[in-house]
Amino acid sequence: MEKQCGHCARPFSCAQAAECWCGAVKLDQAQLAWVKQKFHDCLCPSCLAAVAAGTLYNKETP
């Protein structure tokens, strides 16, 4: 399924299943909660990787 990133608005593919590419991205509990709070839907591979690396996610920013 094609989706649009909730952060950068780029299109990307989503499998909407356990085998989706996003399952390989490791987020801690705080990062996962932050994504769920800030965005209505999925993020693209680049933005989700930025959250995992800490460059998009900031613990100090609710």
**Main β-sheet description:** 2 strands, antiparallel
Q: How big a fraction of the residues is strand?
A: 5-15%
Helix content class: 25-40%
> What is the string of SSEs from the N terminus onward?
EEHH
Number of helices: 2
Q: Specify the structural class.
A: alpha+beta
Question: Looking across the biggest beta sheet, what order are the strands in?
Answer: 1-2
Question: Distance between the terminal alpha carbons, to the nearest Å?
Answer: 30 Å
Shape: globular
The residue ranges in which pLDDT falls below 50 over 5 or more consecutive positions are none
| Total individual domains | 1
Strands, count: 2
| Rg result | 11 Å
Mean pLDDT value: 88
Structure report:
With 62 residues, the chain is an alpha+beta fold. The chain has one domain (2-53). Helices cover 31% and strands 10% of the residues. The chain has two helices and two strands. It has helices at residues 29-38, 45-53, and strands at 2-4, 11-13. Strands 1-2 form a two-stranded antiparallel ribbon. A hairpin with a 6-residue loop joins strand 1 (2-4) and strand 2 (11-13). The longest helix is centred in the middle third of the chain and has 10 residues, at 29-38. The radius of gyration is 11 Å and the shape is globular. The N and C termini lie far apart (30 Å). The model has no long low-confidence stretch (mean pLDDT 88).
